[in-house]
Design brief:
Length: 285
């Protein structure tokens, strides 16, 4: 059997394409790319050097797959969004270098009424059956566990970890280094370095393990802990707590990142704190 490659497609001589794969006119396949059995590559797809489509993968739309990325069986990338307003506009999907997209994941391209692009960063791991909706933006080195679903326009910062079967409401923001517990429903924004859990997720503490793994100094974690305690667990109205934290801790890099996130503006508001969660901030770091 001969491979089904349209003659107008650009295929690097070093690419390896299974005879059962289909590569459409206009596709651009880089050096050392491996396209396995029964994969389908659309006409506006670019696949960078060393990427692997293991088998039964569909990549469509104006989609870019980064160097060294790995796409596992039955995942779909760049398909049309599940948005009734979408009328076939040439929106985009971008997958970063070395990112792994495991079995049965679905990642949809953006919409003209949104950002126009769905973006997954570099060195991410999307475990099986993750759904990334239109116009989502995922940072670098993000880990998303099995069966996580997210609505459109979600933003997830670098190094975040999303636990299995969590559900993220559309327009939710997850800050850098935050962690979402498994089977949590996230209806509002999670501050950088925050740890949220629950059927309707609530802020429990800081993701101290993540901070330690990325080399945060003990003294910096103590300052961040004091600031977050003051912001979410001190008495009084939130506006007053925010002003006090800014006065006491402004200028500290980790605290400034949290404050900038809080003051950026949000369509969903901030995740509320568990009352008993303040006790977790007393743990030794």
């Amino acid at each position: 059997m001969s491979v089904s490659i349209h003659p107008a497609a650009f295929i690097s001589p070093s690419a390896m394409i299974d005879p059962t794969a289909m590569v459409a006119e206009g596709a651009h396949i880089g050096a050392g790319v491996s396209i396995g059995p029964w994969c389908t590559v659309g006409p506006d797809v670019e696949i960078a050097e060393g990427a692997k489509l293991i088998s039964h993968v569909v990549v469509d739309g104006h989609t870019s797959i980064g160097a060294g990325a790995e796409l596992y069986p039955f995942c779909t990338v760049g398909m049309a969004p599940q948005d009734l307003k979408y009328k076939g506009e040439p929106t985009r999907c971008v997958i970063g270098a070395r990112t792994q997209i495991r079995e049965h994941c679905s990642i949809h391209r953006g919409t003209a009424t949104g950002h126009g692009v769905t973006h997954v960063g570099e060195d991410c791991l999307l475990m099986a059956v993750v759904h990334v909706a239109h116009d989502c933006s995922i940072g670098d080195r993000v880990v998303i566990a099995n069966n996580v679903v997210m609505g459109g326009h979600c933003q997830i910062g670098d190094f975040a970890v999303i636990g299995g079967s969590a559900a993220l409401h559309q327009f939710v923001r997850i800050g850098r280094g935050a962690m979402v517990g498994g089977v949590s429903g996230v209806e509002a924004d999670v501050i950088p370095f925050g740890l949220v859990i629950g059927n309707r997720a609530r802020l429990k503490s800081l993701n101290l393990i993540g901070l330690k793994r990325r080399g945060a100094a003990r003294a910096d974690m103590h300052v961040l802990r004091q600031a977050v305690r003051g912001l979410f667990w001190a008495p009084g109205a939130f506006a007053g707590r925010l002003a006090e934290v800014k006065e006491r801790f402004a200028g500290h890099p980790l605290v400034d990142e949290v404050l900038a996130f809080v003051e950026h503006g949000s369509k969903r508001g901030l995740i509320r704190a568990l009352r008993r969660g303040a006790a977790d901030l007393d743990d030794d770091v």
